[in-house]
Structures are given as C-alpha cells and as structure tokens.
Amino acid sequence: MDFLLPDFTPAYPEIFLLFMICVVMLADLFAGEKNRLLSFYLSLLTLAGCAFITYGIYSTEVRYTFSGMFVGDAMSDTLKLMIYLTVAAVLIYSRAYISLRGLLKGEFFSLTLFATLGMMVMVSASHLITLYLGIELLSLSLYAMVALQRESAVATEAAIKFFVLGALASGFLLYGMSMLYGATGTLHISELTKSIQQGTADHDIFVVGLVFVVAGISFKLSAVPFHMWAPDVYEGAPTAITLFIGSAPKLAAFGFVMRLLVEGLGELATDWQGMLVLLSVASMAVGNFVAIAQLNIKRMLAYSTISHVGFVLLGFIAIGENGYSSAMFYVIAYVLMTLGAFGIIMLLSREGFEADKISDFKGLNQRSPWLAFMMLLIMFSMAGVPPMIGFYAKLAVFQAVLEAGYVWLVVVAVVLALIGAFYYLRIIKFMYFDAPEDTRPILFKPDVRILISTNGLAIVLLGIFPQALMGLSLSAIQHSM
Amino acid sequence: MNSENLLLLLILLPFAGSALAALLPANARNTEAWLSGCITITAFAIVVYLYPSISAGEILRNEIEWLPGSDLNFTLRMDGFAWMFSILVTGIGFLVVLYARYYMSPEDPVPRFFSFLLAFAGAMQGIVISGNLILLAIFWELTSIFSFLLIGYWHHNTAARDGARMSLIVTGTGGLCLLAGLVLLGYITDSYDLDHVLAAGNTIREHELYVPVLVLILLGALTKSAQFPFHFWLPNAMAAPTPVSAYLHSATMVKAGVFLLTRLWPVLSGTDEWFLLLGLAGMSSLLLSAYFAIFQQDLKGLLAYSTISHLGLITTLLSFGSPLAAVAAIFHMLNHATFKASLFMAAGIIDHEAGTRDMRKLSGLFSFMPITATLAMVASAAMAGVPLLNGFLSKEMFFSETLGQHSGSVLDSVLPYAATLAGAFSVTYSIRFIHTVFFGPKPLGLPREPHEPPHWMRRPIEFLVLACLIIGIVPGITIGPYLHTAVTSVLREYTPLYSLAVWHGINTPLIMSMTALIGGALLYLMLQNYLAQSEDGPPGIRQLKGQRIFERSLVTLSWRWARWMEDTFGTQRLQPQLFLVIFIALIAGCWPFLGTDPAFNLESTTGMDPAFAVLWGIGIACALGAAYQAKYHRLAALILMGGAGLVTCITFVWFSAPDLAVTQLLVEIVTTVLILLGLRWLPKRMEQIDDATTLIARTRRLRDFVLAVSCGGGMTLIAYTIMTNAELPETIAGFFLERAYSEGGGSNVVNVILVDFRGFDTFGEITVLGIVALTVYALLRRFRPAPDSIEIPEQQRIQNDFDDRHPNRKVGETVHDYLMVPAVLMQWMFPFIILLAVYFFLRGHDLPGGGFAAGITLAIGLLLQYLASDTRWVEDRLRILPVRWIGLGLLLAALTGMGSWLFGFPFLTSHSTYLEIPLIGKIPVATALFFDLGVLLLVVGATALMLIAIAHQSIRSHRARAIESAKTQEDD
Q1: Which parts of the sequence belong to the NADH-Ubiquinone oxidoreductase (complex I) chain 5 N-terminal domain (chain B) (predicted)?
Q2: Which of A141, A444, B101, B166 could form a disulfide with A114 if both were Cys (CB 3.0 to 4.6 A apart)?
C-alpha cells in the first residue's frame, strides 16, 4: 500500500508543542523538588517557541493538510498567537499562587500545555473528528486541572460536576455530529457546506443535528441554559486554574463556533440564528442579574462571563464579516479583562487565604493604589464604560447587530449591560470608599507587576486605539472564511 | 498652528495636565495650582484665538481616522454654540482652579484633586466639541466617572461616598441610555457624524424609531442635567468640595444635558412627544425644585435645588420648539453659569471662613465679610431675576415665551401662572440666602471666627459678578455678538429676530416679573420665622425623598431580584442541574419538529424473526433492570448489565459477525470481573434512605423516569429513522473487503485491518493501553479504602463467630477450604484456557480470533485463578511480571514495524506467506503475526497489571486491620 507523507507545515506548532510537553514531563521527573521552576521556564520557552513557529508559517492563504482534516489559515494562526500569549500570562500570574499551595508540580504545566494543544487543534480543525479531538483534549485536561488540589473537597466536587456535565455535553455534540454525518455522509467541514448548497441533504435531519451541536457549543461557551457548571467550577477550582479555564479556552471556543457554525453550517444560518438569539438573551439576562447577588468574586466573575458570552453571541447573530470580527474582538477583550481580574485576585491571596470574597477588596486603594487602579480599569472595562476596550467591544457587536436589523435585540442588550454595570461598580466602591479589613501589605514580584500594568494599559490603549486589534480580527476573518 | 490642531490641543492639554498632576508629590499645592491654572488659561486663550473664524460662521473641524471600517472617526467640530460652551468650560475652569488653590487645605491630597479636575475639564471640553455621536457619548461617560471621583474626593465621609455612588449610578446609567439612543440615531441617519445627523431632521422625526430614540436620549440628558424625576442625585452630590460644585454642578457638567438637547434641537424638536416629555420634566423641575430650595437649611443644598430649577427653566424653553425659546434657553445657560458659579464660590467662602453651611447657625456675616456679602447679593439678585442683571433678561424672555401657543392643551393656560409662581419662589430663596446669612444678629457659636477670605480667593467671584452686571446693563454690545454666533450655529436658517434690550416697555412679561418679585418677597416675610428653626426639607413631603426611593429600588433590583433569580434558576446540586440540562435538550430536540408533520418512517419492521425480538426484549429488560438497581443493589445491576452485554454478543453472532462477538464477549467478561473486584472497595451503599419513600421523592422519581424515557425514546426514534431512511454514504468497507486477502494475506478482515491496514493506529492504541494500565496501577498503589470498607465482610464475620462458639474448630478453618471446588476446577482449566488463547492467536488472521482476543482470553485465565484461589496462593505459585509483558509487547510491535525499514518499506509494511508446520499444517505467517503477538503480550500484561493492583488491595486491607488491632491493643 502506498502512502504519502502529509504536509506537516501547518501543524508544526502542534508537533513542536507535543514534543516539548514530553520534554517538560521528563525534565520535571528528573529535576527534583528544588528545581520545580525549571518546568515553569521550560513551559514559557515552549510557548515562545510555538509563537515563533506560528509567526513563521503565518500566511493569509488557507492551507489544508492531513487529507483535509487540519487547516492552517489566518484565523487559526491569529487565535493561536493569542492563546500562547494568554497561557503565558496565566503561568506568570499563577506562579506565586501555585507554589504556595503545593501545585507547582509537573502536572500543572503538562496539563496546561496539553490543554493548549487541544485548543490549537480546535481552532485548526477542518473535520468534525479533529474538532472533537481538540475539544476532548482540552476538556479532559481541564477536568484534571480542577481536581489538581486533591485535598480540597470543594475542588473535587467542582471537578466531578464539571466532568459529568461536560461528558453529557460532549454526548450532545457527538450526537449532533452523527446526525450531520447521517444527513450528508461527510465529516469534512467544508463539504458540509457543499452538500447543503447542493440540496442533497435532508433538511430535517440537519436541523436536529444542528440543535444538538448548538447545545454542545453552548455548554462549552457556558451560555444559558447550559451554564450551570461555570459558577461551581469557577468557585471551586484553585484561582490559578479558574484563570486558565476562564481565559484561553474562550478563544478556542470562538474558533470552534466559527469552524462549525459559520464555516460548516453557514448555509443554515437562518436556522441557528434564532437559537443563538435565545441563548444570547438568556445569557445576558441570567448572567447580569444573578451576578449581582454574589458575595464570592470568583462566582460573580463566572456569571459575568456568562453574560459576556451573551454579548459575544450577538456578533454571531449579526452574520457577516463585521459580526464575526466584532465577536472575535469581544472575545479577545474579554480574555484581557479576565486575565487581569483573576490575576489581581491571586495577588491578593496569601497562604491559607483565597481573597475570593468581594469584601476582601475593601479599601484596596489604601493598601495598594496601583492595584486598585488596575482593578478599576478592568471593572470599568467589563462594565463597558468608555474609553476602555470593553466599551468598544460592546459597541462593535451592537453596531453589527444593528446592521443586521435586530433593533430590539440591541435595546435589550443595552438594558442588560446597564444592569450588569452595577455589580462591577460595587467592587470599585469597595476598593475606593471602604476601610480595609486587612491592612497587611500586598507583596508581589516585579514580573507580575510589569504584567499587570501591561494588562491594564492594554485595556485602556486598545480601547482608545482599537483599530489595530479590530483590523487584525477583520483580516483574520476575511482571509479565512 | 492651524485651527484644526488647536482643537486637538484643546482636548489633549487637560488630559496631559491631569497625568502630570497625578505624578506630583502630595504637598505640592502651589505647583499643582500653577500647572492647572496655566493649562486652563492656555486653553481659554486658544478658544479666544479661534473666535474670528467662528464669528465668520465657519465650522472648525478636525477629523482623525479612528476606525474607518465602522464610520467612527475622531472628529472634533467647533461652531458658535460649541465655542460659547468652550469659553465656559475653560474660563470658569480657570477661575475654579484659582479658587481651589485657596479652598483646599494643605492636608488634602491635592494631586488627586487637580488631576481629576483637569481630566474632567478635558472630558467636558470633549463633549462640547465632539463631531461624532459616539465620541460624544464616550466623553459623556468620562464626565460621569470623573464627577464620581470628585464627589467622592473626601471618601472618609459617608455622605460623600453615598453621593458619589448615587451620582455615578444615575448619570452613568443615563449615559448608557444615551449611548443606545445615539447608536440608534446613527442607525437611522446612517452616520455618526454630527453634521450628517443635523442635516437629517425630517428623516429622524418621521422614522418609526423616533420615539425610542427620543426617550433614550432624553433619559441621558435629563439624568445628567438633574431634571425631575432624576433630580435627587444633585443635592446629594453637594458633599463634594465646593470648587467641584461650582464647576461641575453649576457651570459645566449639569449643563451637558441641556447642551445636548440644544445640539439636537434642530432634529428632534417640534413634535408632540418632544413637547410633552421635555415640557413636563422641565416644568416639574422648575416649580418643585424652586419650592424645595426655599426650605433647605444647607447653603449648598439651596443652591443645588435652585440649579435644578433653573435647568428646568432651560428645559422648558427647549421643549417649546420655537426658535425664540431656543435663543432664550441658550442665553439662560450662559447667565446661569455665571451667577451660579459665583454663588457656589461665595457659599464655599462662607463655609471655609465660618466653618458651617447651616443657615440656622449663620447670620449677620455682613460686618465680618462686607465685600463677599456684596458680591453674593448681586449674584443672588441675578438669580432672582432683578432688572439690570443678566438673570433678568433671560427670565423675561422665558416669561414671554410661556405666553405663546404650544400644544393647544390645558398646559398652555397653566404655563404662565406656573412660570410666575416659580419666579416668585426663586425670589424667595434668593432673599433667604442673603438675608439669613449676611443680616440679622451677630452669629453665636460658629466653629470659626469669620473674616474676609484671601484676596485671590475672592477674585473669581468678583470677576463673575462683574460679568453679571455688565451683561445685565448693556447686553447688546457685550454679549450680543457672541450669543448671536452661538444662536445662528444652532438654528441656522431659522434664527429669529430677537432683541437683548433691557427695556421693552410695559408688557405682560414685565408684569409677571414684578408680580414674581413682590410675591416672592412677601412669601419670604411670611416664612421667615418658620424657616429660622425648621427642619431640612419642605414641610409635608419631607418624607418623600427621591433618595430613599432610589435606594429602595436599588436594593430590590440588585439584591432581592437577583437572589430570587439565583434561587429559582441556579442550583449548586448536580442532580437538578443534570435534570435541567437534559430537559432543555429534550425540548430543543423537539423544536425542529414543531409545527411540521414528523414523517417518521417506521415500515421496515416486517420480517423480524420472533426469536430475535424475544432476545432483544430480554436485553432491554436487563438494561432497564440494571438502571433500576444501580442505586440500591450494585451486584444485581452488574449482573443485569452482563445480561445486556450478552444479548449484544448474540446479536453480533446473529448478524454473522463472529469475530466481533468473540471480542465483545471477552471484553464483557473481563470488565465484569474487574468491576466485581472493585465493587468491594466502594463505600457502603445506603440501606435506608429516610426520604426515599415520601410522596415528594416518589413524584420526583416519576418525573425523572418520564424524562429519561422520553429522552431515550426520542433518541431511539431519531436514530432509527435516520438509519432506515437516510441514504447511507459510501463507506470504506468495500475497499477492505476487496483487499484484505490480496494485500493483507488474511481472510479475517477485522484482524487484517487491525494489524495491517490500520497497524499504525493499533500501535498507538496498545501504547495507550499500556499507559492506562500503568496509571491504574500507580493510582491504586496510593489508594486508601474508605474506613467502612476495611471491615471484614459479613459472611466472614458470621463464619468467625461460628468458629469461635465451637471449641473444636480452629479460627479460620472454614475460610481455609473456602471455594475449594471452583478453585480446583479453575486450576484444571488453566492449561486449556492457555491452549484456547494460542488457538485464537494462530487462527486469527483468517478466522475469528487474533492477538487481542487471545490476549484477553489469557488474561481471563489468570483472573479466574485470582478469583477462585487466594491472591497469595496464586502468587506463590505463579510469577507474573505484567510490566515486562507490556514492555515486551510494545517492543515486539515496534520492532516488527521497524523491520520493514530493512527492506526499504515504510514503517509497519507487512509481508505475508504461508508456512508448513508439521502436525499443525499450513498456517499463514504474515509479518503481521509478530505484530499481533506484541498486541497479545501487551493486552495480557495490561489486564494482569490492573488485576493485581486491585487484588493487592485485599492484602493491604488485612495489613491495615492488623495495624488497627495492634493499636487498640496498645491502647488497652
């Protein structure tokens, strides 16, 4: 049997990462207790290497390989670069936190990198099986990461819930995919479109498949009504892990929705548009309302994530380059804000103290004015106050939806955004106007200080000059779809 | 420098100054003041410098591309109206900075103050000269934020915190509404550019979205300008330092609302909705706030209500929709800014020098600060609308406008009276302000000895009061040209003829003015004694505070509703979460069929063998039983599951897939046995669950059952329909069937696929299997059984008790021969099982069997030994080294694969031939056979490794018990 070697070029970053994961695991095994930071530096180096390779192979052409199961295009490369950046930031933010909690182990790094690999496969998948492979690689790593702190009952419970619900959602997704296969006889994403265009597929079966695929997607995105896992997992997992779960996977999820709904099922847009409208409105409403009632900041941010997902979905509802690129912009903005917010929660925590109550932020301005100011920027940005990036992100999706003719949806979204602004402002009030309950100084290393400052500045600067990022998103979408 | 860049500089200067101010040390009061002063005066100079081109009717523009794709440019645009406001922002800004230098005490952290103040000035300037709606909204929100920070400047003070929060929530919320309104406006006109929007008046007014746009924009403007019913934040914002009140709450920020209304007046006004909404809000603010102002005891509170009332006057004027009224409105904005800023500063001086703002304590200050008193008197007179002062002129214009025809309703006849009444109230509170504070007996018990303020602190007031006088006496030549520039830029071709003369002869407005003056003075005389001791707030409705309603609704909205929603829709328990998810999935699954006629095609059930149907009936019954027993009887559930598995195996046989059947059967056996072994270590099952039998529990279970059945049924139905109806896509099966023998050298296609066509996959799979086995082993090595499962099983306990009671029986005698018969049988069967495995292995390439099946068979042989005999007994006799088996298997598989390299073929290329062996005969010997052997070894190793790991738990539990009993003995 003859067999041709596939073109490995588009998958170089993934191959390199897989190789380096093995190196990290082995190095960690032989490094011993004292040299735990070796894995940390190696992981950062790996990400830098991946970025280098991705940048090197970046091109605006669409390149298929592995018999059309894997694709490299502008969108995947851009998203991958963002993912590396995010994961690197997560690692730097988490270092002190995990070393104080005995999590500075090889597992943390190898699982993080495996999850990263999963995300990369997700955004580069052009075949339903590849897509599923990526999702499961990511999800399984995340389940394990949530349970990493084995003595913690809360974390274990969160992990079990995450796993059970996640497995169920994967089931939905697979079921949906099998319907799509049943209707078209293909698993290639690009061929799905063709078969719909040619009208060879049974529309009814298609829509049933679509419903389950959308259900699976909304679980991964934590959109209402499949959002239940998010608050529990966010609260239960160690903050470093929460930061990871809340940030990079959303970028991958964006890529996943783009591949599946837009690239594969774009012809059925009228069918999924309605479903997304429901999900989006429900997410914005539940997320924003319930967030107000939270006393735990991690839980509050979980609900805030749910509401942000609702806004991201608006971009998809708009359909068209502008809609998708504004959704991408929103996701990137969201990741920036989440990184900063959880980063600050981790900076406030100490050994045996999690700083996850909203009241722990009281009087932060007196303890560390700079941190308080950074948090102020992040909260304003999340609330969508100009000139922060969050404002522009909201504006962009609103505009896109308005162009699509959904005036009522914009009005509803604005009202819900308004309600949402309330709980972010409460944190600002706590930080600036209340007396601190705890006057111990906050200690952190210079690298974290640089990172958090960069993070805060990015939120402001990208809000004032959004065209660079917006242009990037737009060109990524234009060259890929 | 050209004027475009100057516009940009106007915005950048304050922000740059703000950044700089923030960096200065905390005690640099003078440096801060110099810096801020220089910046504001430079900005003022720039504005003045631009006047010639503005007065020529030119509109200065500076457009910087910001986001070209979405019609969002950084457009600055200055026309006459914007110019007038720029003068206010920069000019009064400078005066306030000067004043603040003396007002702020050396202990205050001034860098923060000046930094926020400058940033606010920049944002306000931005609102005024924005040429793009979105840009305007951005600056609008910025003013809300900086106002919040400035009001809360003294954050140790509760009132300051509450006031700041309230103002931010009200104005910030309004700002977001405004943004929504402006986005919609942009949607209607297809552009966010202000010029473009202003040219599209008719399109906007006739558009179906006009009312929502109007409501949203009014919400923004009315909250910002503190108009009824959103007025309550302004009095609470008086906790701010007085320079802030003078700047934000008289001259600039609160004016932003009416500024915007005037800006959009040409495109939005003139409709009934506009008049009703705006007129009602304006009139209520005008009248009610003037009334409230009379009864305030706090100096600044009085001024705050008066501000609301004056802004109400402007709003009312704008609501009329007549050009003349708009002129009056613009004029009054200017006048109000001048006299109100000076009054706030005067109030600040009084507070600063006397130590209190409570009018019940203040009196007779004239003799201590005569100059300040005189200045305040002139300014109050302007506020009251006394002739020869600027306030009189615009008020006169207002009165004459109220006389006109507006909507033809009852409002028209009420308006003049209401206006006069409000005028009278404003006279009353103005007199009160002056009379209480400066006249009367000498004050007693003031915190400080009052005296004149520093010279330079008074300068700003002197300047502003002078402006009031000059404008009031000779309006035509002083303010006339500037006002005209502003008016024409707003009204363009609709600019009416108007006259700024002081004397228009005796006409109705003058009579109204006089009535108001006299009435107001009389009212003050009547109320004078009451006011001297009364509580804060108007009598009768003192309890009705917007603030309280606001707080209460905030709590309801933010806490009760949110809690209710979380309680209703959120749950932290997995079971309801699962229920919800599946329920929603069910509904979603039904969705596509709503309204359509579900055409399920179920005809192909004919021709089914009854025996097969019975078989499946048994299988389904087993599966249901397993599900039913899963919670209460694990062993039964497991056995029932085995039954279901068996039915599957038979089904495979039925459909002529013996190889699958064999594999499935073996896998069923091995998993069942492994689970059986593991079952021992699960925590004890709940024998008695108290609430398991209640009605609620039963209903819940019934509900879950219905859900499960409908989901399962639905899935089956859909799957069945698709499998029987959809055209099956072309599969790869044909390819394999065709080539299995010719290219793979075997007639068992499944096996050929496994070891040849998909050899690479299999290689990966066995590697994973090896890793899994190692992981299970590693995990179980650290496994600590739950305390309740360490106990001796019930049967052994009974047996031991029996042994104890009979003296002739030794302890453990019964256990000794436990399972004797099966153990012997198993031992005898062991060689046969090995033989079977070899048989499976050798025939695998052509007939059902193969390395995997053989491996499992061998593993079952080992398992049976462990089950029937004691773990230690087996291990004494049998040395199994599973890890070596695994390693050997992998190595063999890899070597076979690499072997093909020697012949220049890719990895895992196989070659097949037949070999004649004595006794056995001709057997197929493909290189794949070695590969298959590797699979066999690995499967045996992996299964055995897991098995041993579990089996060793029982040894360790004995040990744990021994340690436990040793401990208790020691304790005894």
Answers
A1: 67-114
A2: A141
- Asked if B581 lies within 8 A of A225 by C-beta distance, the reply is yes
Q: Which domain holds residue A455?
A: 9-479
Best mutation site among B148, B577, B587, B753 for testing chain A: the one with the most A CBs within 10 Å?
B577
Please check whether residues B152 and B260 belong to one and the same domain. Answer: yes
Q: What is the pLDDT of residues A413-472, one digit of tens each?
A: 988 887 787 788 888 888 877 788 877 778 778 888 899 999 999 999 998 888 889 889
> Residue A440 gets which letter from DSSP?
P
Q: How far is A165 from chain B (nearest CA, A)?
A: 7
Residue B124 shares a structural domain with residue B208:
yes
CA distance B149 to chain A (A): 9
Which residues of chain A have a CB within 8 Å of the CB of B183? 395, 398-399, 402, 410
Instruction: Give the SS3 label for residue B78.
Output: strand
B824 and B952 co-located in one domain = yes
- What is the β-pairing status of strands B921-926 and B60-67? unpaired
Quote the DSSP letter at residue A356.
-
Residue contact B582–A168, C-beta within 8 A = yes
Same domain, B288 and B425: yes
The answer to whether A226 contacts B581, with C-beta atoms less than 8 Å apart, is yes
> Token digits for B349?
């001086």
Nearest residue in chain B measured CA to CA from A325: B69
State pTM to two decimals. 0.80
* pLDDT-derived band at A15, boundaries 50, 70, 90: very high
Residue B228 lies in a domain: yes
Neighbour count for residue B705 (Cβ, 10 Å)? 12
Does the beta-carbon distance from B134 to A395 stay under 8 Å?
yes
Q: What is the pLDDT of residue B822?
A: 85
Say how many domains are in chain A.
1
Residue A3 domain-assigned?
A: no
Residue where a domain stops, chosen among B264, B289, B317: B264
Q: B142 vs A228: CB contact, 8 Å cut-off?
A: no
Which chain B residues are closer than 8 Å to A232 by Cβ?
572
Residues of chain B with pLDDT under 70: 1, 67-71, 405-408, 537, 539-547, 558, 568-570, 594-607, 684-693, 725-730, 784-791, 811-816, 912-915, 919-925, 954, 956-972
- The reply to whether B236 and B275 lie within a common domain is no
CB contact under 8 A, B184 and A407: yes
Nearest to B766 by CA among B647, B590, B951, B908: B908
Residue type, B283: M
pLDDT of residue B782: 72
Same domain, B9 and B128: yes
The answer, for B712 touching chain A at a CB cutoff of 8 Å, is: no
Whether residue A2 is contained in a domain is answered as no
Query: Both ends of chain A: CA-CA distance in Å?
Result: 36
Chain A contact for B220 (CB, 8 A cutoff): no
A206 and A196 Cβ atoms separated by less than 8 Å? yes
B613 lies in a domain?
no
Same domain, B249 and B330: no
Number of cross-chain residue pairs from A and B with Cβ atoms under 8 Å apart? 165
B215 touches chain A (CB under 8 A): no
The CA-based dihedral angle spanning residues B842, B845, B851, B857, taken in that order and rounded to the nearest 10 degrees: -60
Name the pairing type of β-strands B912-917 and A70-72. unpaired
Q: Does B568 map to a domain?
A: no
pLDDT for the residue B569: 65
Query: Residue A174's pLDDT is what?
Result: 93
Nearest to B86 by CA among B579, B482, B550: B482
Q: What is the DSSP letter of B51?
A: H
| Final residue of a structural domain among B481, B516, B539 | B539
The reply to whether residue A211 touches residue B906, judged by beta carbons under 8 angstroms, is: no
Tell me the nearest-neighbour CA distance from B287 into chain A, angstroms: 31
Distance from the Cα of B782 to chain A's closest Cα (Å) equals 13
pLDDT tens figures, A181-221: 888 888 899 888 888 888 766 777 788 888 899 999 999 89
Residue of A nearest to B586 (CA): A212
Residue A267 falls inside a structural domain: yes
Is residue B292 situated within a structural domain? yes
- Domain residue limits at B170: 1-264
Give me the residue from A225, A292, A386 closest to B584, CB to CB: A225
The number of domains in chain B is 3
